[in-house]
Amino acid sequence: MCFWHCVLHAGGQSYCVGLWTGHRYKEPTLQAAHAMWSLGAAIGPIIIGRFLVELPPQITTTDAVNWTSTSLSVSETTGM
């Protein structure tokens, strides 16, 4: 979904640039659009960070492998 959003965004900008050939507000308008996009990308994580909840860590595949190898080494040394 994000890929197609980016394709439409880039295509829309290219189309607008073609429509505004020779217009005096072409560069400032595109610069303002990119400035707002960048501002949203910079401020967005700060705003959304207040609403995020930290979840407890989950057992990963690496942890399961380490647990299995640790339990095998303990049983080998104790003779069980």
What would you say this structure looks like, in words?
There is one protein chain. The chain contains three helices and no strands. It has helices at residues 2-19, 26-49, 61-78. It is mainly α and 80 residues long. The model has no long low-confidence stretch (mean pLDDT 76). It is 75% helix and 0% strand.
Summary?
With 80 residues, the protein is an all-alpha fold. The chain is 75% helix and 0% strand.
Which descriptors would you attach to this protein?
80 residues, mainly alpha, 3 helices, elongated
Write the SSE topology:
Blueprint: H1 2-19, H2 26-49, H3 61-78
Per DSSP E runs of 2 or more residues, the count of β-strands stands at: 0
Query: What structural category do the secondary elements indicate?
Result: mainly alpha
Mean of pLDDT: 76
Main sheet? Answer: none
Please write the string of helix (H) and strand (E) elements: HHH
Query: Counting H and I runs of at least 4 residues, what is the number of helices?
Result: 3
Low-confidence stretches: none
Shape: elongated
Radius of gyration: 27 Å
